[in-house]
């Protein structure tokens, strides 16, 4: 079953196109990463899913419910952490969590509050205006987890958190994932995506560039570093290899095909040394955002 379905989603502001006919599906129980540079359309997509803004056209559904028409029902099953946390200044941490508990009908609210307050080192009697950026983010995290949501939508959840709190956040996310929660993670942190997500969508200028598998078993592109006195790689470029960097004696290439074909192609070159390794997510990110997509 698909937890999230986005079809032809478009959002225009006069002449500016924030989302340009994007299509995505997120499976039930999946941990889905969503990455791209500032202004790429990540937060706009999330705001359409949460009915904070209306799309110009297209479909956004969560568990078969329309994000706009069924917004009230969806708010009972979605936990949300915004990139920038804003609550009323004079409301205390305790009051916010109690309001969430009442809205979701949490029967063991006192027990859950005690657990999360200790887990994330919050001071329940403090007002929001007295909290640092990191502590406000922790309140939003606890507020999203405390009612055991079916779907978690996280927009830069680790910004403002110290390493210990980041670690505890991902421990909690792993627990909720094991319990069946679907997680949609929008972030700039490539390490988070690479180590935590099952699939990841890359977005730029309101368009989905690629959706990549993160799980073990997926075959990533290869980074091939060649060393030699007179390397002629034009023939390789014609076959789809992309030059990442070049010096007088070294060339780094990006390639996606079988290792057998790679070795065949390299056999025609005069090479002193060769290094072949899998492309990491940072290199994938740069291949998409710094000069276009890899040709296969």
From TrEMBL:
CDD domains: ABC_DR_subfamily_A. GO terms for molecular function: ATP binding; ATP hydrolysis activity. Keywords: ATP-binding, Nucleotide-binding, Transport. PROSITE patterns: ABC_TRANSPORTER_1, ABC_TRANSPORTER_2. The keyword Lyase does not apply. Belongs to the ABC transporter superfamily. This is Abc transporter.
